């Protein structure tokens, strides 16, 4: 696992190193420019001094000797030897020549016998014996050419020395800065450690929001997201606890009834009484089976439980198939089933669409009285497709419509063997398909009208 502290240390130390190196490079080039200007001025000053002496002797600090071809009215003068420290510096720095026409009259110990530069006057650069020279030339009143030169290597070494002296402290400063940065980051990350301890101390069955009052501003979005997540998890756990308790209660009732009827059947001596008890026991088993199926359906529809497999489905054909499955049950109670629909195609999960239709139509048949009617309408709308299911049952009171889709909710006066999960399943399937569900009274204020709107495919 990557360490946030190590990552910050690497970034900060790398940034410091890059900035320091860039500063050293800038200093090197800036020092080189300043050194060039200063030493150029020194060359020009040295040439002026030689011109002022008429080329007869070298100024202090320059080592000179007579050229082999010095033949004039008087003997050439040899300059006095400079002091030892000046001599060592002169050998490192400046060389000069005095030319009269093509004859070399005077030169320093380090100067070559050939001209320092082909350029007579002014500054120039030349290459002699593999070494680069910076040369300044000037003529005196007798038209003698004085050339003063210096190797470029000296200038480069001075500039490198300045840069090295800037980088030397980095060898000590960077480790020290890294240690200080490491400690500072550790101190700065202490609020995150506190948050981690607070999260680790949360009770599994009671998730409390994290305290954000003492948290740094940068951690506020993280704490807000964590508190939002904890609130959702807590609400989901409470919901699941209620669901489990309600499911246990709903299952306990039919199972207790089945047990009672079986006990009656075992003790009954009248065959008719035994048959009646067994029939009621079978009805209780059917109710328990349906409840378990609906519980499994709800579990499948929970967020994150699965992915929709949408495809193009004919809504009218799916409704017709479901009505055909319920036809025997409706015929036994003389309930009229009707389908009035045009060809409508939607993008839906076929399995979930079948579950939606089965729950709506089964509820309509279940709650309709004998001799009643159930009608199904499918049609296209501007906003998509619409499915309408109406029955002639008791309907749902207006004050109970808001709670009709709650799990295990059964309105006042409800009859039949329902479990109160059908409309909950329908609502969840509609949500998964980005649709809309509306409940209201049927035609003439009788029964229940359910409208489901699907978005365009």
Q: How would you describe the overall organization of this protein?
A:
It is a single chain. With 457 residues, the chain is α+β, with helices and mostly antiparallel strands. The protein has 3 domains: 4-160, Beta-Lactamase (2-Layer Sandwich); 217-300, Orthogonal Bundle (Helix Hairpins), CATH 1.10.287; 311-454, 2-Layer Sandwich (Heat Shock Protein 90). Helices cover 51% and strands 18% of the residues. It has 9 helices and 13 strands. The strands form 3 sheets. Strands 1-3-2-6-5-4 form a 6-stranded antiparallel beta sheet. A hairpin with a 2-residue loop joins strand 2 and strand 3 (103-108). The longest helix is centred in the N-terminal third of the chain and has 49 residues, at 4-52. The two termini are 45 Å apart. Residues 63-92 have low confidence and may be disordered. Keywords: ATP-binding, Kinase, Membrane, Nucleotide-binding, Phosphoprotein, Transferase, Transmembrane, Transmembrane helix, Two-component regulatory system. Its EC number is 2.7.13.3.
């Amino acid at each position: 696992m990557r360490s946030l502290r190590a990552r910050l240390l690497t970034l900060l130390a790398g940034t410091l190193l890059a900035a320091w190196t860039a500063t050293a490079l800038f200093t090197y080039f800036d020092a080189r420019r300043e050194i060039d200007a200063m030493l150029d001025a020194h060359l020009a000053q040295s040439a002026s001094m030689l011109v002022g002496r008429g080329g007869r002797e070298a100024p202090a600090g320059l080592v000179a000797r007579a050229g082999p071809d010095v033949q004039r009215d008087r003997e050439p003068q040899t300059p006095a030897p400079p002091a030892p420290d000046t001599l060592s510096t002169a050998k490192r720095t400046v060389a000069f020549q005095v030319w009269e026409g093509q004859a070399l009259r005077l030169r320093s110990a380090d100067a070559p016998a050939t001209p320092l530069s082909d350029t007579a006057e002014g500054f120039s650069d030349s290459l002699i014996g593999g070494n680069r020279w910076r040369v300044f030339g000037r003529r005196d009143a007798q038209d003698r050419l004085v050339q003063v030169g210096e190797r470029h290597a000296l200038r480069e070494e001075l500039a490198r020395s300045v840069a090295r002296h800037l980088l030397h402290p980095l060898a000590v400063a960077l480790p020290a800065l890294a240690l200080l940065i490491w400690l500072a980051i550790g101190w700065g990350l202490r609020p995150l450690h506190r948050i981690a301890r607070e999260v680790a101390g949360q009770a599994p069955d009671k998730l409390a929001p994290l305290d954000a009052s003492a948290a740094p501003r940068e951690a506020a979005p993280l704490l807000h997201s964590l508190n939002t997540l904890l609130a959702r998890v807590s609400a989901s756990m409470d919901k699941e606890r209620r669901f489990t308790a309600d499911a246990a209660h709903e299952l306990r009732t039919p199972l207790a009834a089945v047990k009672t009827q079986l006990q009656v059947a075992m003790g009954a001596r009248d065959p008719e009484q035994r048959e009646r008890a067994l029939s009621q026991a079978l009805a209780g088993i059917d109710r328990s089976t349906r409840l378990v199926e609906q519980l499994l359906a709800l579990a499948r529809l929970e967020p994150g439980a699965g992915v929709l497999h949408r495809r193009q489905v004919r809504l009218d054909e799916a409704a017709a198939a479901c009505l055909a499955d319920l036809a025997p049950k409706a015929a036994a109670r003389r309930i009229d089933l009707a389908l009035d629909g045009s060809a409508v195609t939607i993008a839906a999960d076929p399995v979930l669409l079948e579950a939606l239709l089965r729950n709506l139509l089964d509820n309509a048949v279940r709650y309709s009285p004998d001799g009643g009617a159930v009608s199904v309408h499918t049609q296209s709308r501007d906003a998509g497709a619409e499915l309408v299911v109406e029955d002639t049952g008791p309907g749902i009171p207006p004050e109970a419509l808001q709670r009709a889709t709650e799990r295990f909710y059964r309105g006042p006066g409800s009859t039949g063997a329902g479990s109160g999960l059908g409309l909950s399943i329908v609502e969840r399937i509609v949500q998964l398909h980005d649709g809309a569900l509306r409940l209201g009274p049927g035609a003439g204020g009788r029964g229940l009208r359910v409208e489901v709107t699907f978005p365009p495919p």
